[in-house]
Amino acid sequence: MILFSQILTLLAQSPSGHLLDGPTGVLLGVVIGCLLIATAAGQVLKRQPDSSVNPAIVQAFIHRVRAWWLMTAILAVTFLIPTPVATVILFGLISFWALREFITLTPTRLGDHRTLFWVFFVLTPAQYVLVGLGTAHYELFSILIPVYGFLFVSARIAIAGDYKRFLERVAKIQVGLYICVYALSYAPALLYLENWTNADYSTSAGLLFFFILIAQLSDLLQFVCGKFIGRNVIAPSINASRTWEGFFAGTGCTAIIGAALSLTGATPFNSWQSALMSIVIAVMGAAGTMTMSAIKRDRGVRDYGTLVEGHAGVLDRIDAICFAAPVFYHITRYYFTTLAG
Amino acid sequence: MDLNLTASFLTGLTKVFAGPSVRWVDSQPDTCQRVYFANHTSHVDSMVIWSSLPTDVRKVTRPTAAKDYWSQGWFRRHLARSLNALLIDRDKIKVHQSPIDMMIREIGDKYSLIVFPEGGRAHSDSGEIRAFKSGIYYLNKKRPDLELVPVYMDNMNRILPRGEFLPVPLLSRVVFGAPIWLEKGETKNDFLARARQSVLRLRDI
């Protein structure tokens, strides 16, 4: 207990200050409040007689809330560390984990072994090192994988001397690297944005937190809205639970929540900008979910793996984030900072 | 022997590289004396089975390994000692010094073993399992009280294939099956075929 209070005092005195500023704290508070309500709701539902609610759905709900607590806690703790490097490392580890699931699922041949070693232990760390070096390395970090990485992967597989299904194997490794590493690395890169056009805005921790929150919420809301009013399934053979009605209603709800969250001051957006950004995240998130579902259907599996109880795999959780991160980063960079020149 | 730092480190490292999801089918982890026999496709196979066991079971389980390889240099010797490996001298096999006698002497009434009855590592990507060598038959004949637990490992040949020395981190699967024993009057070939089948069956679970 004494140790804990010492740590808190140290953090309060730390001259550089941690990433968690006032507005981000408010946003975090709102989320924790919602989670408390959700946890209480889960407990109430659990006590209901089995006939009124489906116990399997209640159990899934409780697990989901638990995983959200875990996610919030991890992000909050990394924000308490006075450097964005901790967050970059956290996302680097998530990438590593997601890529491991992705490559496990898509068959590779013996000839891909050395290429995979490069992908896991050279390209992935290099990408996150470049992100951690800050906006000065934006140019290299934004082209390392899609330009040099992709050329390297195809050449390295060719050198290994196995030509069977060559293009297919190259594409698999490239897509895995692109979605799990490159696209995801734009999320921690948000922390390095600076020179805001909005003079009142200073730190980006709130921006990252807002982004992840909206991406997860839109995923959930599109699913829930689809359950209630869904009629027309977008692509039945790929994902039976995603409907057009759910997509539009869920995206609309996300926009309203996004606009409301701008009141916390944790992002540089005013309310209509925040609503538009939420729509962008929701649309890209839906695209990510559909894409990853298509890959899963092709491989004949339901989930990418098992890590957190009640949740499928890391990749099942971050598909929306992966697709939305680059777009969110670029719009924010080009319209809300002076970095683009 | 107590578990040491090297062993804990290796166990953690194995979990990062091979991410095994462990399943026990019709059997439970137990500290009773057992022989775990498995399909063999990779250098890291022993390590994966070993780290898939609960700590108390791991403490009494010894992987078997070739002495000529694992006694070269302090590093390999240290690794073998940390895992409490049972090193088998392949050069000095004599009538009174058979590896089976040595195994039985070494495990006493305490330790369990991890063995790979295929002899060497299988080549194929297809998950095929080669014919078993007769070691486990003689082992069970001399010690009928030992439980023979089949283990099937999936995806290991992609993590560290034959001829490669750098592993690629992927997820794998370790399935432990129901124990088997040598039946009364069962011939050597019948028993070895049955043992091989018991591992193969776990592949499709």
From TrEMBL, chain A:
The keyword Transferase applies. Its EC number is 2.7.7.41. The keyword ATP-binding does not apply. GO terms for cellular component: plasma membrane. The chain crosses the membrane at residues 26-45, 115-134, 140-163, 175-193, 205-225, 246-269, 275-295. It is an enzyme of class 2 (transferase). GO terms for biological process: peptidoglycan-based cell wall biogenesis. Keywords: Membrane, Nucleotidyltransferase, Transferase, Transmembrane, Transmembrane helix. One of its GO terms (molecular function) is phosphatidate cytidylyltransferase activity. Pfam families: CTP_transf_1. PANTHER family: PHOSPHATIDATE CYTIDYLYLTRANSFERASE (PTHR43535:SF1). This is Phosphatidate cytidylyltransferase. It comes from Blastopirellula retiformator. The lineage of its organism: Bacteria, Pseudomonadati, Planctomycetota, Planctomycetia, Pirellulales.
